[in-house]
Design goal:
The structure is a single chain. By secondary structure, the protein is of the alpha+beta class. The protein has two domains: 4-133, no CATH class; 137-242, Nucleic acid-binding proteins (OB fold (Dihydrolipoamide Acetyltransferase, E2P)). It has six helices and twelve strands.
């Protein structure tokens, strides 16, 4: 049997004049914590790919305890040690960084102290800390994503959902007019989608929460020289003033390729 270990998210503070306790935590807050925990521990895995995470909540003020494989606990302990040592989260996976940013917002807005504990390591997050990604490491970029379109719509924030092999299901913002004039049988078909979004210059990761629809492409696994030539034709104006493409790319990447 695989050895198990424990990870804790310990939250201290007050609700009005009362000391924080499980009785004062709404179910929506608990659900949010559970989602953040999954992103902290398994940022790249789908539910079917990761091991079971068991959960309990206890007093003092509020202790969210998670049990999973010891290997994961050790790895997460190393992550929070590194965050504390570096003093920033720019090097983390997008979903892990977003989860820590969420705890930072909670600490600042509610004057809570959030402590992450794993394998004798701890990371304290409070209103004086600044565990947020630095904007300068993110740039606007374009991506080509491939997968099955599983949902489209939304009253206030229209979007499409694309189920991909590499990134799971992605929500991509789209103009309502596009959905109005589009084909009626888009769902459950495979497409390529050209999107705009943010990319991390240090890790080259895509920010899945920033994706905006540009173009829907018929998905074909066949190689097409004509299609490649068309992409090169579109890109050519952007590169017109670049004398040495390799040098330009290296400067953009900060001198290192991920």
């Amino acid at each position: 049997m695989n050895a198990l270990g424990e990870i804790e998210i310990h939250i201290e503070g007050k609700v009005g004049a009362q000391k924080l306790s499980p009785a004062l935590i709404d179910i929506e807050e608990i659900r949010a914590i559970l989602g953040e925990a999954a992103d902290l521990l398994f940022p790249t895995e789908k539910r079917s790919q990761r091991p079971v995470i068991s959960y309990e909540i206890s007093e003092g003020s509020v202790r969210h305890r998670f049990r999973t494989l010891m290997q994961t606990v050790i790895g997460f302990g190393a992550v929070i040690y590194q965050v504390g040592a570096e003093g920033h989260i720019d090097f983390l996976h997008e979903r892990t960084a977003a989860a820590i940013e969420s705890f930072q917002r909670i600490a600042r807005e509610k004057d809570y102290v959030v402590t992450l504990l794993a394998n004798q390591q701890s990371l304290r997050i409070d209103r004086t800390t600044h565990y947020e990604r630095r904007e300068q490491v993110w740039v606007e970029a374009e991506f080509y994503l491939y997968g099955e379109l599983t949902n489209a719509g939304g009253k206030n924030n229209p979007n499409i959902h694309l189920d991909t092999t590499d990134h799971g299901t992605l929500r991509i913002a789209v103009e309502k007019d596009y959905l109005k004039q589009g084909e009626k049988n888009l769902l459950y078909r495979k497409f390529g989608v050209r999107v705009a979004g943010r990319q991390n210059l240090q890790t080259f990761e895509m920010d899945p929460n920033s994706l905006r629809f540009i173009e829907l492409l018929d998905h074909s696994v066949a190689y097409s020289q004509t299609y490649l030539d068309e992409l090169l034709r579109r890109a050519a104006p952007v590169w017109r003033d670049v004398n040495d493409a390799d040098t330009w790319l290296e400067e953009l990447r900060g001198g290192a390729h991920a």
